[in-house]
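User: Can you help me understand a structure? I only have the sequence.
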Amino acid sequence: MRMNRRTITITCMFLTLAILWAVPASAARTLKYGHNTKENQPTGKAALLFADLVQKKTNGEIVVQVFPNNQLGNNKQMADNLRMGALDLSTMGLAALAYLNDAYMMMQVPYVFRSQEHIHKVVNGEIGQQLKADFAQKNGIVLLAQDWDRMPRHIAGRKPIRTLEDFKGYKVRAGVLPPIVGFKAIGASPVDIPLNEMYLALQQGVVDGAELPTDYIYEYSIFEVSKYFNKTSHTFGTQFLGINKRVWDSLKPEHQRAIQEAADEAGRFNNKLDAELQDDYIEKLRKGGMEFVDTDVEAFRKATFEKINEISKNWEGGAKLFERIQATE
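Assistant: Let's start by predicting it. Here is the structure, written out as tokens:
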């Protein structure tokens, strides 16, 4: 049976409509989000909340796929991939930004910050805003946040550290350059050892101790090979949440607003959880057999500040940035 032209036209029209109804008007866009934390830690949980909030706030038009625990590479690899666009989003400590901008090196030197409140004032104030603008322009990364908290860093060790004299020649593991430079300046013997090799290094006596946030001392079982929890409080740190600038610029304004709102909400959740769990981790470490040692923090801070010119010469503008940080109230 032949079909006339009118029948063919109507048939084609219905077929076209059927195809349009079958395919969503706007397919979801997937963004890859890598970080270096386990899923059961505060930042791991906050990352999952961020992904959920983005999907809800964009009505499913943006989907964030989360890869925790260094699945997409180590910190340097993720920082490089974020800059190049091989990775869309990432959360890591501010020290990871130091691979791309020396200013963040100086901000990770021990005792630069007085408290968690102090570092928040710096990263959310004039200094942080200038660094954010500079980073987007020069490094192609938009910093959605710089204030996702990390627990303060201390030194878990085979030997106690009560005085500055106890620290002379102390072989301390540090994973990034700023504490290595800072600790060396006040007499220690810092060693760069990867996170996944710390347990064995302590067990075999390759190092005397390791500088880590409280939760890492527990989650990586460092307390099993370190009798002493030396309360050095040498780093009050935060993490960033960054997005590749080309990806950011390609998003609709309403999607940018949604992602920024999600970053802010997830950051508040992370910080609340981080603060609540600090005491829980300390109690777990006590039960695990660690002895808590009161370190003479003020003596360590004074010794570091006396060496600040020697330390800061490693990074252009370091001394001036140090002065501005200290002047932030």
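Now, to help you interpret it: The chain has 14 helices and ten strands. Residues 26-101+110-149+237-283 form a domain with the D-Maltodextrin-Binding Protein; domain 2 fold (CATH 3.40.190.170). Let me know which part you'd like to focus on.
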